[in-house]
C-alpha cells in the first residue's frame, strides 16, 4: 500500500448550486471521516489508480482565502474535487495533462459564522488518464495579505500552488506581479461575492484573470473594482509548474 508522505515547504465557469457551501446536513453520515490535511504542507503520494480515489478533509477558516491544489508528475493527469460532504463534490478542477489543478475557497463567503471559526470540507483526488505516476498535493491557507511595498519571496519545493489575499478598494486597481528567478509559474485571480454563496469556491478554470507567460518572463495581472462596486478581497494564486522555483510576488 502506498503511503502519504508529508514534506514541509518553505512557504507555505462551473456554476455551483445556490447555498452550495452553506451549513447543511450531508445525505450520508461519515462514521470515519477521511484524514485531515495539515495546512501549508506538501503531501507526496504514489500512483492511486483511476478506481482508487484519495479522499481527505480540510478546515476552511474565516476570513482568508485558501486553496487546495494537485500536481502530477510528467505526463500524469490528476483531477480535484471539493465539496461540503464526502460523497457530494460540488466544485471540480479538470485541467488537462499534468497541469496543476486547484480549487480556492473564500472563507468570508463560504458560510455565515464569526471570524476565526472554521468548517470542514472534503477533497477528492483522482487520476484521469492512463499514464501512471506520483503526484503532490497541498492545502494553502494563505497568510498575510499582499500589500503595496511589501514583496514576498517564495521558495517552493514540490508545492503545486499557494494563495494570498489582496484587498482592492472601490474605484481602484491593484497590479500583481510575479518575478521568476528559477522555475516556472503562473498567476491566477479568483473572486467571490458575499451575497452569492454559490461563488464561494472557484476552480482554476473559473479564475477571473490569469497570466501564463513562458519561461522566466514575469507574470502580471490587474484587478480592478469599479466605483459602483464594493471593495473586496480577491484570492491571488501562484501556480508552481516546476519541481522547484524561486519567485517574488509583489503588489503595486
TrEMBL record:
<protein>
    <submittedName>
        <fullName>Uncharacterized protein</fullName>
    </submittedName>
</protein>
<feature type="signal peptide">
    <location>
        <begin position="1"/>
        <end position="22"/>
    </location>
</feature>
<keyword id="KW-0732">Signal</keyword>
Amino acid at each position: 500500500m502506498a503511503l502519504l508522505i508529508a514534506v514541509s515547504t518553505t512557504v507555505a465557469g462551473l456554476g455551483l448550486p445556490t447555498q452550495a457551501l452553506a451549513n447543511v446536513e450531508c445525505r450520508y453520515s461519515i462514521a470515519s471521516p477521511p484524514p485531515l490535511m495539515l495546512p501549508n504542507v506538501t503531501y507526496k503520494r504514489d500512483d492511486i489508480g483511476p478506481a482508487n480515489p484519495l479522499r481527505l478533509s480540510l478546515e476552511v477558516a474565516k476570513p482568508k482565502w485558501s486553496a487546495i491544489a494537485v500536481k502530477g508528475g510528467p505526463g500524469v493527469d490528476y483531477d480535484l474535487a471539493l465539496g461540503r460532504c464526502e460523497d457530494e463534490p460540488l466544485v471540480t478542477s479538470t485541467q488537462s495533462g499534468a497541469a496543476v489543478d486547484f480549487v480556492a475557497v473564500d472563507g468570508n463567503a463560504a458560510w455565515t459564522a464569526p471570524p476565526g471559526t472554521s468548517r470542514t470540507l472534503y477533497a477528492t483526488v483522482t487520476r484521469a488518464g492512463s499514464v501512471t505516476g506520483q503526484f503532490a498535493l497541498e492545502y494553502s491557507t494563505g497568510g498575510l495579505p499582499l500589500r503595496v511595498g511589501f514583496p514576498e519571496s517564495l521558495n517552493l519545493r514540490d508545492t503545486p500552488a499557494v494563495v494570498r489575499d489582496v484587498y482592492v478598494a472601490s474605484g481602484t486597481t491593484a497590479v500583481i506581479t510575479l518575478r521568476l528567478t528559477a522555475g516556472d509559474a503562473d498567476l491566477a485571480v479568483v473572486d467571490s461575492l458575499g451575497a452569492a454563496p454559490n461563488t464561494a469556491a472557484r476552480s482554476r478554470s473559473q479564475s477571473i484573470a490569469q497570466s501564463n507567460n513562458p519561461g522566466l518572463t514575469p507574470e502580471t495581472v490587474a484587478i480592478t473594482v469599479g466605483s459602483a462596486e464594493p471593495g473586496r478581497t480577491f484570492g491571488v494564486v501562484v501556480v508552481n509548474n516546476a519541481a522547484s522555483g524561486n519567485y517574488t510576488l509583489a503588489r503595486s
